[in-house]
Design a protein that fits this description.
The protein is of the alpha+beta class and 148 residues long. It contains 3 helices and 7 strands, in the order αβαββββββα. Strands 2-4-5-7-6 form a 5-stranded mixed beta barrel.
C-alpha cells in the first residue's frame, strides 16, 4: 500500500472511530435525561409512561399521609389546575411540607398515580424551582378544568 493510501485509511478509521464514540456518548446522555412535567402536562398526555421524569408543583394542603414507621408517604401534587397522587417510600427532606413547592422524580402509572424514587423540596420561602413556577403560572393563566 502506498504511503498516501495508508494515511487516508488511518484518517478514515479515525473519523469512523470518533463518530461511533460520539454516538455512544449522545445515546448515554439521551437515556439519562430527566424531563420536568406539571400535573396538567401529565393529564394532557405529554409525560411518558415508560420513562423517569420529574413531576413538580405544590403539595396540596391536607394531603400528606404517613404510614407505619413514617417512611411510606402519600401526598398530592397540584398546579392548581390538576392534581396527581404521589407515593413515596423513603426519608422526606426536612423542608417538605404542605402548601410548599416540591419536585418528585419517578414514573407515572397507567392510572395517573406517580411512584416517586426521590423527592426534592424548595430550600427557603423565596425560592421555587423555575420549572415549577412556570408550570404554576401557566396553570393559573389557562382556563380552569375539573381535577381528576
Amino acid at each position: 500500500m502506498k504511503p498516501r493510501r495508508k494515511k487516508f485509511a488511518i484518517i478514515i478509521a479515525g473519523v469512523i472511530g470518533l463518530s461511533v464514540a460520539s454516538l455512544f456518548t449522545l445515546n448515554a446522555f439521551r437515556s439519562n435525561l430527566v424531563f420536568f412535567y406539571s400535573p396538567s402536562d401529565v393529564f394532557a398526555g405529554e409525560a411518558p409512561l415508560d420513562r423517569t421524569f420529574r413531576l413538580g408543583g405544590v403539595v396540596e394542603k391536607g394531603s400528606v399521609k404517613k404510614y407505619g414507621d413514617g417512611l411510606k408517604v402519600d401526598f398530592i401534587v397540584t398546579d392548581f389546575k390538576q392534581s396527581i397522587p404521589v407515593y413515596y417510600e423513603g426519608i422526606l427532606p426536612d423542608l417538605f411540607r404542605e402548601e410548599q413547592g416540591v419536585i418528585a422524580q419517578g414514573k407515572i402509572q397507567a392510572d395517573k398515580t406517580f411512584i416517586a424514587a426521590e423527592v426534592l423540596a424548595k430550600h427557603d420561602e423565596n425560592y421555587m424551582p423555575p420549572e415549577v413556577a412556570d408550570a404554576l403560572e401557566r396553570a393559573q393563566d389557562s382556563p380552569a378544568t375539573a381535577n381528576n
